[in-house]
Structure to design on (199 residues):
């Protein structure tokens, strides 16, 4: 926990934590990508088409409006842009996201470096299809999308990855699967790897 004095950077002795506070947590600059991705968010929030959603984490399937998925599942502007700044601070080659949803966070993760490899996995086929369409329409050529159960896809993916620079865990939020994914990814860390867990 960081007290209010330390949140301003006062009294922080670690150069890493100081940079984290001042260059990432407190950064107020507007990046060009913010408006672009937030316009896509607004479009999704007003899209009332229905799609079929399989939820591997909850073990059920439902018919849902895209607007409802966007409202419930997408990360807020604040946290999406925090993830962007985390990735933007380093020269990352390989980014992995577990849980694409409609792809808003994916675009934030892929935007800092168009030459990076941003890999994302989504379990629901129609949600995956919607996200990949959005990636294509917005010329995200560095996003590599996969559809299916993470339990099946992740081990094979990791066989062809030397180092994971950044991993965003945002899929099955139960303890046992999350720990399983974590330990698999842990075998691929480098000296500057960053893991971020949602919920």
């Amino acid at each position: 926990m960081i007290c209010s004095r330390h949140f301003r950077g006062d009294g922080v002795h670690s150069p890493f934590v100081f940079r984290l506070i001042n260059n990432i947590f407190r950064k107020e600059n507007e990046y060009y990508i913010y408006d672009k991705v937030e316009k896509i968010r607004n479009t999704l929030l007003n899209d009332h088409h229905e799609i079929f959603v399989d939820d591997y984490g909850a073990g059920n399937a439902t018919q849902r409006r895209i607007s409802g998925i966007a409202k419930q599942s997408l990360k807020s502007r604040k946290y999406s842009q925090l993830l962007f700044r985390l990735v933007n601070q380093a020269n990352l080659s390989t980014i992995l996201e577990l849980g694409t949803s409609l792809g808003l966070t994916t675009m934030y993760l892929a935007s800092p470096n168009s030459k990076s490899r941003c890999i994302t996995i989504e379990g629901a086929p129609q949600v995956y299809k919607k996200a990949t369409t959005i990636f294509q329409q917005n010329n995200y050529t560095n996003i590599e999308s996969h559809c299916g159960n993470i339990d099946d896809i992740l081990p094979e993916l990791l066989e062809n990855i030397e180092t994971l620079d950044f991993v965003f865990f945002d899929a099955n939020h139960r303890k046992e699967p999350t720990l399983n994914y974590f330990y698999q990814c842990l075998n691929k860390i480098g000296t500057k790897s960053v893991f971020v867990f949602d919920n």
